[in-house]
Amino acid sequence: MARCDQGYSCEVCGDEVEDITDSDLYLRYVIGEIPVRDLMAAPERHLRCNPVLAQFIVDQQFVPVTVDGPFNKQQLGSEERLAKESFVTRGWQRLQVVRELRLAIAEYPLDEIRQ
Fold first, then answer.
1. Structural domain of 87
2. How many angstroms separate the CA atoms of 110 and 78, rounded?
3. I need a labelling partner for 96 at 20 to 30 A (CA). Which of 2, 45, 80, 89 fits?
């Protein structure tokens, strides 16, 4: 998706990741998990195809994701879980508006990541 923002296949399901707002790769970039230089080479996935990360998005506009087993967010302490939910949700919310704001890609990450 990085080269033209469309048309990259999800490494999990094989379907096209049609929009940046549904991109696991770009969410991980926005929250600082991957550097900008990796956007061209890292594999793409739909957010729901990475449920371990997607479960931390808590927003009325996002249908919740549940993970069974040891990676379920309920395995974390409540303080750590709430902090991660807040952080990932803010990243997802930012991802939903970066195009509308006409930001340069270097400005996509959350403020605390860019600093």
1. 8-105
2. 23
3. 80
What length does the chain have?
115
Over residues 60-114, the pLDDT tens digits come to 999 999 999 999 999 999 999 999 999 999 999 999 999 899 999 999 999 999 9
Based on C-alpha coordinates, what's the Rg of the chain? 14
112 contact partners, CB below 8 Å, separation of at least 6 = none
DSSP state of 63: -
What gap in Å lies between CA 82 and CA 103, rounded to an integer? 28
Return the percent helix, strand and coil in the chain, to nearest 5: 45, 5, 50
Q: Provide DSSP, 13-52.
A: T-SEE--GGGBHHHHHHHTTSS-GGGTTTSPB-BGGG-HH
Q: Considering the domain boundaries, does residue 73 fall inside one?
A: yes
